[in-house]
Give the backbone structure.
Amino acid sequence: MIGTVEYNSACFYRYSNVDLGQLIANLKGDSALARRTLEAFLHASIDAVPSGKQNSTAAQNPPSFVMMVVRDSGLWSLANAFLSPVRPGDGVDLMHKSIDQIDAQWNGLARMYGVKSIKDVSFASLDARELPSLGKPIATVDKLIARALETAKFAA
């Protein structure tokens, strides 16, 4: 190879949604299997690392911020938090500013649409700081997943 390989720091946003009622129906009413399936899915979603350029950069970075929402109905992607690019500056890094944008987007949606269908919102974060809208973080990803599973309804 003749040329250069450049490094960068990127921030990726991932979003997934699970319709628990449909999952239980698809599993013929087996709530215990649905719970195990959801737990495995949540762990896999967090542990998945984009595979591009791994041979040249070895970027096996786990997420710096994981947020989970348990709700009775409705879907809210927070992708619009990034309509304007987030840029590091003033001694604040890209990840910190991205987390602030997610918090602000959540605040706007909650204020505009209300939170009556939301049963729980929680997050885990590397920097472990309290956020204005989302509050205090959960200590670990395992505890975050356990909280989401405890809040979800597993009745058929």
